[in-house]
Amino acid sequence: DGLTTVDCRGNMRFCVRILLLLLIGMVICMWLSFGVANEPTQRLHARPSCRVGSRFSKELNRCSRCPSGYFTLPDMNECVPQLDCAQIAGDVLNRSVIAKGGVKTIYRATWRGQAVIYQQGHQRDDFLHGIDVLGWLSQSEDVITVIGFCRSNLELVVPYYPQGSADTLTIKGLSSIQRMNLVKSYLSILTTLHSYPKGPLVLCDSNTLPKLLSQLLVETSATSPLLVLNDVDAVPVATSATSVKCGHRQLPDNGFVAPEQLWKEAGPFSDVKLVGYNEKIDTWRLPSVLLHLLDCRQPRNLQSLSTIECSQPRWTITLQAVVFACKQIKPAQRCSVADVVALMAPIMKDWSHLEMVSMR
After folding, report:
1. Partners of 117 in the β-ladder
2. Given 3-state DSSP classes, what are the helix, strand and coil percentages for the chain, each rounded to the nearest 5?
């Protein structure tokens, strides 16, 4: 077949040389195969893109939050101590008002050339409670990181998110994978809140869907937008011994507010007579948030589950089950956030696989 054979009986030295060359060639091929196939992969995964407030830890070989009392920003390679009162006064510059509410005024500012958000509190108790909550949840990527604070002056500095809050996000312009990542992000936020060791933390300042979405900031990542909990001034702790009340006024019967939050007695509203509630008010609102993030049609009530329509048929079936499990009138009969995560797991797994394929 055109191949030349060698008779080693008459040319032993030549054959030995050939064998040595073959062995050397095999070793080189194996080394190259290991080097080319494995080393780039290791380099690729060694320094992933970390979320705002996290940095890459060589010891853990992954992204992690800074220790308590420290912070980092995307352009920084290490954690530094949080700003104190004097540093906020001297280094947080170029403040311009972008929003004002009853609890605080929000300014866009700069710190060492980087855009940040400076907050000046007006209501001491609520503002300081918000700082406390951010401290309790400082190790979670679901919650905005603290750059610095000054309790005596009611000041707080946090990162600036150019994409703004979730109430301004155009859902229709996102892909199905991106929408599902928003859902995963929101479920992660509620899981973090409801898993707080001292008792579930409840999202109180959320009596309408736009108001709830305004509490969440949009963080851009390499593949998809994610959600970050920002406003935690009205996030009380609910325990088995202590229920919560979201404000001291009568709330609207708009379908978004949970039934136990409504005044149903005859006569004028009385905050004293209104019975408190717990984290199950978050569960009641959860389907409305998920349906919005997935751009699905909202049902009017449990009797109209068939009106739910999503771009993906499998979403529709799963979300009908989620609505039914969360919209029970009696709070004790509603599912938990963990139950919703379990219900959503099959379709979230499917879309996570599609995301990995799209990134190749």
Report:
1. 108, 158
2. 40, 15, 40
Beta carbons of 244 and 204 less than 8 angstroms apart = yes
In this predicted model, what pLDDT tens digit does every residue of 25-44 receive, in sequence order?
Answer: 554 445 444 443 444 433 33
Q: What tens digit of pLDDT does each residue of 49-77 get?
A: 788 889 888 888 888 899 999 999 988 88
**Number of residues assigned to the chain:** 360
Averaged pLDDT of the chain: 86
Q: Which residues of 88-121 are buried (b: 16+ CB within 10 A; e: fewer)?
A: beeebeebeeeeeeebbebbebebeeeebbbbbb
Q: How far apart are CA 324 and CA 318, in angstroms?
A: 10
Helix (H) or strand (E) holding 191: helix 176-194
| Longest CA span, the chain | 116
Encoded tokens for 327: 């919209």
CA-to-CA separations, 263 to 33, 270, 303, in angstroms, rounded = 71, 8, 23
Q: Is the pLDDT of residue 24 over 70?
A: no
